[in-house]
Write a structure and sequence with these properties.
Layout: E1 3-10, E2 19-24, H1 37-40, H2 52-61, E3 68-72, H3 82-91, E4 95-100, H4 105-113, E5 119-123, H5 131-135, H6 141-152, E6 157-164, H7 171-180, E7 187-191, H8 210-220, E8 227-230
Parallel strand pairs: 2-3, 3-4, 4-5, 5-6, 6-7, 7-8
Antiparallel strand pairs: 1-2
Helix pairs in contact: 4-6, 7-8
Bound molecules: iron/sulfur cluster.
Length: 231
């Protein structure tokens, strides 16, 4: 496990829970608007990785203060040792939320089947035809589709979510995404924020105005009953 960062307390990363957020290093996608660019590049020499001993000691001290641990990235499912890492945290009595881009369905399936995860947030970057542009690669489309089906057919608490960017995501894209995840329990439209982006050209872009997000929501509500907006 390569742990590149820690947010001691978060009130927003794990729905309705107080959590500590663990940031893993490395990602197999290259979304140009990614906010965690320092975690995505393979050769970032400026990271002081946090040892597992230190992390577990920290969590032991937080036991009465937080409900859960949110594991994010980068892409956590690329980490060798993720499963035993999660098992250990679960044994300490914490709930686990996993953020994922969905490119490792076998691991997701195993974690779900063995009840090691309490909540999964999976990104749907775009319709599959636009993953090359909006996620830097379309070579994992089949795996992502598999992960979607795993979540749709599971009893786990989950959400799908899409970060939407003016000039890149259209109403038609949102409808195609909604068709892909039709019947999902929960879907969030997340507005783009120009902060620390992987492609510096995105730093000058702005998010959608609220009324456009509401329009997106009303267009996809026939496919998914619970659609939220994160602005
Ligand atoms: S936003 Fe894209 S590039 Fe950034 S961590 Fe998530 S999947 Fe990887």
């Amino acid at each position: 496990m390569k742990i590149a960062g820690l947010q001691k307390t978060s009130l927003i990363d794990y729905p309705e829970k107080i959590s500590t957020v663990v940031f893993t290093y490395g990602c197999n996608l290259r979304c140009p608007y990614c906010h965690n660019s320092g975690l995505v590049k393979n050769n970032n020499k400026n990271i002081d990785f946090i040892s597992l001993d230190l992390l577990f000691e920290f969590l032991r001290r937080r036991k009465k203060l937080i409900d859960g641990v949110c594991i994010t990235g980068g892409e956590p499912t690329l980490q060798t040792g993720l499963e035993p890492f999660i098992r250990k945290i679960k044994k300490m009595g914490f709930k686990i939320k996993l953020d994922t881009n969905g490119t490792k369905p076998d691991l997701i399936n195993k974690l779900v089947k063995e009840n090691l995860i309490d909540y999964i947030a999976m990104d749907i970057k775009a319709p599959f035809s636009r993953y090359g542009l909006l996620a830097g690669s379309s070579k994992y489309n089949n795996q992502i589709k598999e992960s979607i089906n795993i979540l749709l057919n599971s009893n786990i608490d989950y959400e799908f979510r899409t970060t939407v960017i003016p000039g890149y995501h259209t109403e038609n894209d949102l409808i195609k995404i909604a068709e892909l995840i039709k019947g999902a329990g929960r879907y969030f439209i997340q507005n783009f924020k120009p902060h620390n982006t992987l492609d510096s050209a995105f730093k000058s872009k702005k998010g959608f105005p609220p009324h456009v997000l509401e329009d997106f929501k009303s267009k996809i509500s026939p496919y998914i009953s619970n659609v939220g907006i994160r602005n």
